[in-house]
UniProtKB/TrEMBL annotation:
<dbReference type="GO" id="GO:0016887">
    <property type="term" value="F:ATP hydrolysis activity"/>
</dbReference>
<keyword id="KW-0067">ATP-binding</keyword>
<dbReference type="GO" id="GO:0005524">
    <property type="term" value="F:ATP binding"/>
</dbReference>
<feature type="domain" description="ABC transporter">
    <location>
        <begin position="4"/>
        <end position="234"/>
    </location>
</feature>
<dbReference type="GO" id="GO:0055052">
    <property type="term" value="C:ATP-binding cassette (ABC) transporter complex, substrate-binding subunit-containing"/>
</dbReference>
<comment type="similarity">
    <text>Belongs to the ABC transporter superfamily.</text>
</comment>
<dbReference type="GO" id="GO:0140359">
    <property type="term" value="F:ABC-type transporter activity"/>
</dbReference>
<protein>
    <submittedName>
        <fullName>ATP-binding ABC transporter</fullName>
    </submittedName>
</protein>
<keyword id="KW-0547">Nucleotide-binding</keyword>
<keyword id="KW-0813">Transport</keyword>
<dbReference type="GO" id="GO:0008643">
    <property type="term" value="P:carbohydrate transport"/>
</dbReference>
Length: 238
C-alpha cells in the first residue's frame, strides 16, 4: 500500500476545464470515499490517478513519487468499475490470473495467488465457472479478485455496486469493508450512495463542479458541514 497525493490537479477537454485544481493527501491504508453529483468529475479524477486519462496540469504522487509519466501498469494501481469487465470466454480463475500471466509469473505462483484471493472472496467453489454462470455479486467479487491478486499499492473503485440490487449492495458493502480490514490497501471509492460513503470511509471527499467542497470524517461532515451543498449531500439536519 502507498500514500497518494494530488497537487493542484486540473483536467480540460478541449477548451473546457472540468477539474479545477484538486489537492488532497491520502495516508497509507486510508479508505477515502469520493462523492458528488453526476458530472462533477469523480471518474475523471480516478482515471487521472490510474493513468487512464492525461493530466492537464498538476502532479499525482504515489508513495511519494510523481507518477505523471508512468503507464497504468507501472503505477501498480487496481481499478474496479461498475461494469465488471471480465473476459467472457475465460473462467473466473483465468480472469483472476490473467494480469499475473502477463507479468510473467509462473503457473504455481499464479495458482497460489488466485487461490488465496479466492478464499478471501468466497470464490473457491466458483473458480471454474464462466462469468455468464455467475450472479451479479459473484461477478463483482471476481472483478475484485482480479484486482487483489496483483497486490496493488492503491485500489480505485468507480461506483462498483451501482448495478446491483439494494440487498446485494448492502452485502457487498460489508464484504468490501471486511476486505479492506484484511488487506488495508489505500482505497479511493467513488459512490453516489451516502450510506456507502458513511459506513466505508475513513474520510469523505465531497466534490462539486470539479472542486472539493469539503474533506472530513463521516462524523465531521455530518456534524459540521462546510456549506449547504455538503449538508444537502450528506443528509445532515443543518
Ligand atoms: P462523474 O464521474 O462525477 O459523473 P465525469 O468525471 O465522468 O463525472 O465527468 C466530468 C465532466 O467532464 C462532465 O461534465 C463530463 O461531461 C466531462 N467529460 C468526461 N469525459 C469527457 C470526454 N472524454 N470528453 C469531453 N468531456 C468529458
Ligand atoms: Mg462517473
Amino acid at each position: 500500500m502507498a500514500s497518494v497525493e494530488l497537487r493542484d490537479i486540473r483536467k480540460s477537454y478541449a477548451a473546457l476545464e472540468v477539474v479545477h485544481g484538486v489537492s488532497l493527501s491520502i495516508a497509507e491504508g486510508e479508505f477515502i470515499a469520493l462523492v458528488g453529483p453526476s458530472g462533477c468529475g469523480k471518474s475523471t479524477l480516478l482515471r487521472m490517478i490510474a493513468g487512464l486519462e492525461e493530466i492537464s496540469d498538476g502532479e499525482v504522487l504515489i508513495g511519494g513519487k510523481v507518477v505523471n509519466p508512468l503507464t497504468p501498469r507501472e503505477r501498480n494501481i487496481a481499478m474496479v468499475f461498475q461494469s465488471y469487465a471480465l473476459y467472457p470466454h475465460m473462467s473466473v480463475a483465468e480472469n483472476m490470473g490473467f494480469n499475473l500471466k502477463l507479468s510473467g509469473l509462473s503457473r504455481p505462483e499464479i495458482d497460489k495467488k488466485v487461490g488465496e484471493a479466492a478464499r478471501m472472496l468466497a470464490l473457491t467453489e466458483l473458480l471454474d465457472r464462466k462469468p455468464s454462470q455467475l450472479s451479479g455479486g459473484q461477478r463483482q467479487r471476481a472483478a475484485m479478485g482480479r484486482a487483489i491478486v496483483r497486490d496493488p499499492a492503491v485500489f480505485l473503485f468507480d461506483e462498483p455496486l451501482s448495478n446491483l440490487d439494494a440487498k446485494l449492495r448492502v452485502q457487498m458493502r460489508t464484504e468490501i469493508k471486511a476486505l479492506h480490514q484484511k488487506v488495508a490497501t489505500t482505497s479511493i471509492y467513488v459512490t453516489h450512495d451516502q450510506i456507502e460513503a458513511m459506513t466505508l470511509a475513513d474520510r469523505i471527499v465531497v466534490l462539486n463542479g470539479g472542486r472539493i467542497e469539503q474533506v472530513g470524517t463521516p462524523l465531521e461532515l455530518y456534524r459540521t458541514p462546510a456549506n449547504l451543498f455538503v449538508a444537502g449531500f450528506i443528509g445532515s439536519p443543518a
